[in-house]
TrEMBL record, chain A:
Gene3D superfamilies: FAD/NAD(P)-binding domain (3.50.50.60). Coiled coil: none annotated. This is GMC family oxidoreductase. Residues 234-343 form the Glucose-methanol-choline oxidoreductase N-terminal domain. Residues 444-566 form the Glucose-methanol-choline oxidoreductase C-terminal domain. It comes from the Bacteria. GO terms for molecular function: flavin adenine dinucleotide binding; oxidoreductase activity, acting on CH-OH group of donors. It holds the Pfam family GMC_oxred_N. PANTHER family: LONG-CHAIN-ALCOHOL OXIDASE. Keywords: FAD, Flavoprotein, Oxidoreductase. It comes from Muricoccus nepalensis. Belongs to the GMC oxidoreductase family. InterPro entries: FAD/NAD-bd_sf, GMC_OxRdtase_N, GMC_OxRtase_C.
UniProtKB/TrEMBL annotation, chain B:
Residues 28-136, 178-286, 303-393 form the Cytochrome c domain. It is found in: Cell membrane. Heme c 2 binds at C193, C196, H197. Keywords: Cell membrane, Electron transport, Heme, Iron, Membrane, Metal-binding, Repeat, Respiratory chain, Signal, Transport. GO terms for molecular function: electron transfer activity; heme binding; iron ion binding; oxidoreductase activity, acting on CH-OH group of donors. PANTHER family: ALCOHOL DEHYDROGENASE CYTOCHROME C SUBUNIT, BLL4482 PROTEIN-RELATED. This is Cytochrome c. Its cofactor is heme c. GO terms for cellular component: plasma membrane.
Amino acid sequence: MRRLPRKDVVIVGLGWTGAIMGYELCQAGLQVVALERGPWRDTASDFNIGTAPDELRYAIRNELFVRPSQDTVTARNTPDQTALPIRRWGSFLPGNGVGGSGVHWNGHTWRFLPSDLNIRSHYKERYGEGIFPENHMIQDWGIGYDELEPYYDKFEYLCGIAGQAGNIKGQIQPGGNPFEGWRQRGYPTPPLKMQLNQDLFTKATTELGMHPFPLPAANMSQAYTNPLGVTQAPCTYCGFCERFGCANYSKSSPQTTILPVLMRHPGFEARTECEVMRVLMSPDGKTATGVTYIDAQGQEWEQPADLVILAAYQLWNVRLLLYSGIGKPYDVSTGEGVVGKNYAYQANSSVNGFFDDKLFNSWAGAGALGMTCDDYQGDAFDHTGLNFVGGANINGTTFHARPISARPVPPGTPRWGSAWKKATRDNYNTSTNVGSQGSVMSYRDCYLDLDPTYKDRLGRPLLRMTFDFKPNEERMSAYVTEKMVPIMRAMGAKHIVASPKKGPWSVVPYQTTHNTGGAIMGDNPRTSAVNKFQQTWDVPNVFVLGASAFPQNAGYNPTGTVGALAYYAADAIKGQYLKNPGQPLVQA
Amino acid sequence: MRAPLLAALAAAALLATAPARAAPDNFDQVERGRYLVTLGDCVACHMSTSGNHQGSQGFVGGRPIETPFGNIVTPNITPDRATGIGTWSADSFYRAMHEGIRPNGARLYPAFPYNYFTRMPREDTDAIFAYLNTLEPVSNAVDRNSLPFPLNIRASMLAWNALFFEPGEFRPDPNRSAEWNRGAYLVEGPGHCGACHTPKNLAGADRDSRRFAGGPLQGWFATNLTGDERTGLGAWSADEIVEYLQKGRNARSAASGPMAEVVEYSTSAMTEPDLRAIAAYLKAPPTAAPVAPARTALAADNPQMRTGEAIYVDRCGACHTRSGEGVARMFPRLAGSQVVQQEGSETLLRVVLQGVRAAYSPHAPTSPAMPAFGWRLNDDETAAVTTYIRNAWGNAAPPVSAADAARMRDTLRDRP
């Protein structure tokens, strides 16, 4: 192994959090190197308008994701089962390459509710201990909404989020989300242009006494220049966001918001196709000294650094901690240990409606084009007597009608042949959907650890996922989905199919890429892996960014909170850590 | 400080009639030189072949400069004694800049634009020389003899100079404003704009009758800078010229190709008063502009126009919009665009076939890029869509043929 010259900072992964942290620390005058195991990706060369909307290549053959032969996980529902490797991605799609999942996301950009962040104490105070489900591990985040607000704002203005504020400094705004936490100012850009689905959804939910508002979107409603001076162009509503890179500079991603500036920063260097093996530790195990990685030629290198930032996808962050011996691994039999605990996911549901007399033109969409209601989100509604914790947002979205996968046919239609073709023709443009994005709580037997059997191509154990949807989530999803049916009825559907979330969790059908937890934040080193600044309790010069820090998952897409937490950590490093390097920012 | 510079200063002190005193701190002179090097965009030609242009690497030479007569490889102008200009004096540097003659008497080729640099006064060339002498000397021997016979005989430039070269420093026009005169000096002197934007005769000299009319250049078409409304800068305001030079883009256009380098290395680092001066001069040239040929647009039912429109709607309209308006400062406006209506279609063909990245400037860092379409459009389709763009929305320019597209494809194959 060859040793390279020391850097101030090594960042593992060049997606959203790596790019944010890289830029902030370069601005602070540090020498930063980012190691990305996937390829370089850039708009005009890699998302050429002539090839970017290729459904077979990107959505079926998964070009932008990690190849399972390169890396995968094993999965099972309960600790008494034997986990098997995922050999073809299904339930979720881990990104790969520069930009990470920030390349292929849809662009829903949310703030969590204030009561999502202090969920344990909030529910306890409002409903008593009895509301929490069996075997739960629900924890407060160790950070309050007021602390995080400026960093939500910073991420939204980096991206140029299109939306309508609902609460500016405590003043409820017409047309916005009345349940959201306060924000210091409105969104940087106005909402996207809505489609027929959203018009009907708005009318129906208003009539039902709900509070519809535009879904906050990282798809540009107009050209926008962010505080770094980087410009994005208006969205063309092509409908190829999720699973695709944007060819039009219209979807916020590291490529379209930070990298044009960061890549030219004299303090910054990115090395692609470099897979980090582990974090190197000092002999006493109290300080990280750098990382080792293997480049595309198979050569192993040591990159010494004073500060190590894990900014990989949630699953891989947790695995690197386990490989490196940072933090005590979670032990399901005792409930002790912190690394790997509180894995959570997302409990989504849908209601499909088939219409006689409407043409939805679903082909023209955008990743986050939609109207939403938060009336059954988090603790925005009274849970007394409901027997579950959590909630979901309810969305009327139009984000794609891709030719291969969008085949909305009513149940009972044959799976192939002329009847199926006719049903496709009849329903493709006359059906639509209302969806919910639900929270998932944390449980003692839902966790991540290293698989005892299966190894990756480099000989390292695969990460093992143990997860299932619990009765709490099934009750929540059933309740919210029941609220969605009358909406679809009021929108005028003739035939309605409701699909609430039910266990067992299967790795096969796509559900969501919102995996969370495993290196969770909190205020106590016995129950969390990182403090509220995402600094590991045990090794103060290692920070772990991303959704791995979520103690449980809220009923929202995670990226807004991931971005805010990255900015929060960057500010703490710049303002506090660098004045006294190597010291914990929170005393245990 | 470098030894030769010390020697030059010592000589100056000895010759001075005033009582002997310490050599002056030349900070101001070096800073002036640094800025003049920016004005002259020296690194665009003299930077290393790796594209590194930081510090001395911007001046080590070795880049081949394409001319119609063959490639001319640029010299090392760091103060290295063996391979650079370390043994030169300020006098010999002035002579090279002013007359195109090296210290050993050899003639320089006018690919080095001494026909422009001759306008620079001695104090400016001295300042550049002082700045170059602050650079770390880098040893980089460059093979300078790449031209075919008889052009490889440098004495052949004697005849060229006799015919086309008139040495002489810039003389301000007392009837014009100080700003205009500053602009004239920048454009005609260090900025050497005409080196690309004025068409050349068969001997490679500027055709004075076609001043700033634009012409083919290294597989691109350098745009017309006259006041012509359609192909020149007639429709551009001074503010738009300033924004373009400072940011590499404005609401109409985006710099790309060789001009992107000019913006990145030179104009984006100019002071705003200097950019305003350039705009003032370009908007009020001293001599009447050559008249561009009148054009009428091809009829909309011309078969190439119909095919081109169909391709445009499918392939181009998402970014450049159906009406050709584009997106200001991101995707250039094609309706009324100066670039697409040039006499030669080289730039438009090249951008469509190969794609291109817009200029980077610290004032506008996005540097968006146009993807390549050469892999999906054949020569007929390329010709049709470029013809359409040149003749839609009120545009008017000569049609493009499939042979033009094929020729550009060959050019790009030879010179990616």
